[in-house]
Amino acid sequence: MNENQASNKKFALTTPLYYVNDVPHIGSAYTTMIADVIARWKRLQGYSVMFITGTDEHGQKIQRTAEAKGLAPQEHCDQIVTSFESLWDKLNIHYDRFSRTTAKPHQSIVKEFFQRVWDQGDIYLDQQIGWYCVACEEFKEERELTENGSCQIHTNLKAEWRDEENYFFRLSKYQQKLAEFYAEKPEFIRPESRRNEVLSFLKQGLQDFSISRVNLDWGFPVPSDPNHTIYVWFDALLGYITALLDPNDEPTLKNALSRWWPINLHLIGKDILRFHAIYWPAMLMSAGLPLPEQVFGHGFLTKDGLKMGKSLGNTLDPFDLLNRYSADAVRYYFIKEIEFGKDGDFNETRFVNILNADLANDLGNLLNRTLGMVQKYCKGKGPALKATEIDNNNPLKIIGEGLSERVRECLEALKFNQACEEIFSLIRACNKFIDESAPWSLYKEKKQAEVEEILYAVLESVRLAAYLLSPIIPNLSTRIYQQLGFSVDFNDFELVNRNFSFKDQTKWGNFPGNPNLSKPEPIFTKLEPPSDA
Ligand SMILES: Nc1ncnc2c1ncn2[C@@H]1O[C@H](COP(=O)(O)OP(=O)(O)OP(=O)(O)O)[C@@H](O)[C@H]1O
Ligand SMILES: [Zn+2]
């Protein structure tokens, strides 16, 4: 057993459980791609990973959407879920659990949790009067509405006036406890700007929120009062707990919480920050459960400055993108192009330009021309050297030796675009090094040892870059490793962990050089600019 398998480090992370009011779009895909990168990165390091995604299927918006289509709500949900699953498949997302809030065991978990909160005296009946955004499934303060009476995000939909009896959750009781918790755990809400948003919301004073709806069938009944349906958000957040049940487990909180709780990381968009950073920890406090370690609220993919979303309908179709470009291309673009946490726009011309520059030219061509030179100058045999035989002033050795640590720091801090920058600084240095040291001239001058040292340093740098990029572009990394003569598939986590330990693979120059290199084949074909550019 190698050191990776011997470790019992665990990491559990979630994407939001996406609302099935419509098929997924590139925004839903964005969070899921990031989660997949983190999960893969942790697996490379030998962690046991529990990666949860899924769907949130109850509530008014789903009931209305299904009605409009002439379908029973469950039928509608089943249809939409298929498209989520198929998108994750196309994007090469390796999740461990797909949690659906209409799954049978979920109702038992919700019931048990509700009872715990009830027993704490944290639930009471009162009148709810105010504006409701059906798309957010949330009551809004009057001051939060636009001039047209919509919420800030769903500008095409007027908020509805509600005056009804609801059960309320005593959020106000947790004001002080939450303040203490945020102070003790400054890392709980990331990035800093989101944490500040939450702190200023807290300062305004927390109001109790309603956790039931009347005149709505599509949801779980309140256990003590079946005229009420449990509010979709109360139910949805608990989907993270239900997801932790093993398939044969009896659906109890105890079983669900026994192995993976608390969750290490909830990845979300900033639209649902309040639910995850305020409501959720307060609900867990009430139920007497440990709190998650971190909530990261990233920015929006926007179109003309507005958040892309299912309700606004201004989305980019990921299926269309994936029919035209590979999963690795789509993953790389969004991870490299957008500073995680900030908003970002999608532009297809820029998409093509970045992929051509980084993956086709800088990385792909580099491997191709270096392998070509090995064919010509080394009779096809990879130069077998060791780092110790390489001059300490070799620019690739200088960058390569500290690279893994720098990338590790970036990835641990969820600075994905910086991690890409670090890796590509080595790739770009390789191209410069070849141009400047001109191995073709050295070969003519019969300086074989120098030629081999150059080619070795470049191939070793490409190998290291491919390893570090493997959570982002697993298929390309696999192709690179295979051309370097290794039998590996970065989608086969067990195989990778068994034969390629993180410690060995992240060292520049540890690799003795593989004499059995494949024939060079382009790993990434240059993309045509989009026709309407
Ligand atoms: N434009 C976007 N940019 C980044 N992430 C997004 C975007 N839209 C949705 N997401 C991701 O999906 C989550 C919201 O899921 P939801 O199912 O409510 O999708 P939605 O398209 O935002 O729906 P709606 O438009 O109805 O509000 C966000 O928290 C985020 O993780
Ligand atoms: Zn809204």
TrEMBL record:
<dbReference type="InterPro" id="IPR014758">
    <property type="entry name" value="Met-tRNA_synth"/>
</dbReference>
<dbReference type="GO" id="GO:0006431">
    <property type="term" value="P:methionyl-tRNA aminoacylation"/>
</dbReference>
<dbReference type="GO" id="GO:0004825">
    <property type="term" value="F:methionine-tRNA ligase activity"/>
</dbReference>
<feature type="domain" description="Methionyl/Leucyl tRNA synthetase">
    <location>
        <begin position="148"/>
        <end position="371"/>
    </location>
</feature>
<dbReference type="Pfam" id="PF09334">
    <property type="entry name" value="tRNA-synt_1g"/>
</dbReference>
<dbReference type="InterPro" id="IPR023457">
    <property type="entry name" value="Met-tRNA_synth_2"/>
</dbReference>
<keyword id="KW-0436">Ligase</keyword>
<keyword id="KW-0547">Nucleotide-binding</keyword>
<keyword id="KW-0030">Aminoacyl-tRNA synthetase</keyword>
<dbReference type="GO" id="GO:0005524">
    <property type="term" value="F:ATP binding"/>
</dbReference>
<dbReference type="Pfam" id="PF19303">
    <property type="entry name" value="Anticodon_3"/>
</dbReference>
<dbReference type="InterPro" id="IPR015413">
    <property type="entry name" value="Methionyl/Leucyl_tRNA_Synth"/>
</dbReference>
<keyword id="KW-0963">Cytoplasm</keyword>
<feature type="domain" description="Methionyl-tRNA synthetase anticodon-binding">
    <location>
        <begin position="407"/>
        <end position="486"/>
    </location>
</feature>
<feature type="binding site">
    <location>
        <position position="151"/>
    </location>
    <ligand>
        <name>Zn(2+)</name>
    </ligand>
</feature>
<dbReference type="InterPro" id="IPR041872">
    <property type="entry name" value="Anticodon_Met"/>
</dbReference>
<dbReference type="InterPro" id="IPR014729">
    <property type="entry name" value="Rossmann-like_a/b/a_fold"/>
</dbReference>
<dbReference type="GO" id="GO:0005737">
    <property type="term" value="C:cytoplasm"/>
</dbReference>
<comment type="function">
    <text>Is required not only for elongation of protein synthesis but also for the initiation of all mRNA translation through initiator tRNA(fMet) aminoacylation.</text>
</comment>
<feature type="binding site">
    <location>
        <position position="136"/>
    </location>
    <ligand>
        <name>Zn(2+)</name>
    </ligand>
</feature>
<feature type="short sequence motif" description="'KMSKS' region">
    <location>
        <begin position="307"/>
        <end position="311"/>
    </location>
</feature>
<feature type="binding site">
    <location>
        <position position="133"/>
    </location>
    <ligand>
        <name>Zn(2+)</name>
    </ligand>
</feature>
<protein>
    <recommendedName>
        <fullName>Methionine--tRNA ligase</fullName>
        <ecNumber>6.1.1.10</ecNumber>
    </recommendedName>
</protein>
<feature type="short sequence motif" description="'HIGH' region">
    <location>
        <begin position="18"/>
        <end position="28"/>
    </location>
</feature>
<keyword id="KW-0648">Protein biosynthesis</keyword>
<feature type="region of interest" description="Disordered">
    <location>
        <begin position="511"/>
        <end position="533"/>
    </location>
</feature>
<feature type="binding site">
    <location>
        <position position="154"/>
    </location>
    <ligand>
        <name>Zn(2+)</name>
    </ligand>
</feature>
<comment type="similarity">
    <text>Belongs to the class-I aminoacyl-tRNA synthetase family.</text>
</comment>
<comment type="subunit">
    <text>Monomer.</text>
</comment>
<dbReference type="InterPro" id="IPR009080">
    <property type="entry name" value="tRNAsynth_Ia_anticodon-bd"/>
</dbReference>
<dbReference type="InterPro" id="IPR033911">
    <property type="entry name" value="MetRS_core"/>
</dbReference>
<feature type="domain" description="Methionyl/Leucyl tRNA synthetase">
    <location>
        <begin position="13"/>
        <end position="146"/>
    </location>
</feature>
<keyword id="KW-0067">ATP-binding</keyword>
